[in-house]
Amino acid sequence: MTPLERGFLLLTSRMGDPGRQVLTPAQLRTLASRMGQEQPQDGDRELTQEDLCRLGYRRDAAKRIVALMEEEDRLDAYLKRGRKLDCFPITRANPLYPPLLRRRLGLDSPGCLWAKGDLTLLHTPAISLVGSRELAEPNRNFAREAGRHAAERGWTLVSGNARGADRTAQEACLEAGGRVISIVADELYKQPLRQNVLCLSLEDYDEPFSSQRALSRNYAIHTLGAMVLVAQAGLERGGTWDGTVKNLRQGWSPVACFRDGSESARNLERRGAFLVSLEELRDLRLPVLEEPALFGAVSE
Length: 300
What we know:
Elements: H1 3-12, H2 25-37, H3 49-54, H4 59-69, H5 72-84, E1 88-91, H6 99-105, E2 112-117, E3 126-130, H7 137-153, E4 156-159, H8 165-175, E5 179-183, E6 197-201, H9 211-216, H10 218-224, E7 228-230, H11 238-250, E8 255-258, H12 263-270, E9 274-276, H13 278-281
Parallel strand pairs: 3-4, 3-7, 4-5, 5-6, 7-8, 8-9
Antiparallel strand pairs: 1-2, 2-6
Helix pairs in contact: 7-8, 10-11
């Protein structure tokens, strides 16, 4: 692991301590931006409070950042525990980091992902699926067929491992011999190792479930696939709705909603999504995407 990767972890990982005051994504973005504009005169020495103050930080904020960076032994112990649990960090400086996260989110992408499973899936063509936990039967059929279709096309299915649409699509994909990337909202280390499955966490490998985690992972699901399928969404409520509307507003990826006759599907269509029937689902093709640069978003 490079010093830059260790730096990402030291600044963003709680390392099993909920009280550790790590940097937020916005604070990490600010630090990366300032460091990109000015580097210490001697690039081999460690960053000091004086360096950070010259970059515009107040002394108390500079002291906090330096204190986080000094916990090397603690990081080594945390990484060792993670390896024993088959959990590995993928920082934004790692070539394995998902290309579409860099492309679509740039410095707003997570500083580090924790992974358990088949890491090769991160660089395979992928399609995402989102949907409600409580599904009408036609919508359940759509989720199931979406999973099968992904497997038949050789696409990795990205979803959130929640009951309802997520698990329906994931299991259908795996049963058809496909591959799944699952963005979890609970402890990563508790996920079983399964063939053709990669579990990812946007937080540490031992971070427990929270409703905020369940909501915040939506942007990763929407940005990891070349296209997003919406099996079912509540009208102006719920995580599926919020994540899809944000995707459409930001223009991260094309959105295809199941043509179920609902007002929510029609509303999303007016916002820029397109509707597909079960029959039209089988004719979908993934858009061709450019390979992004290592440290930032690539322009179209």
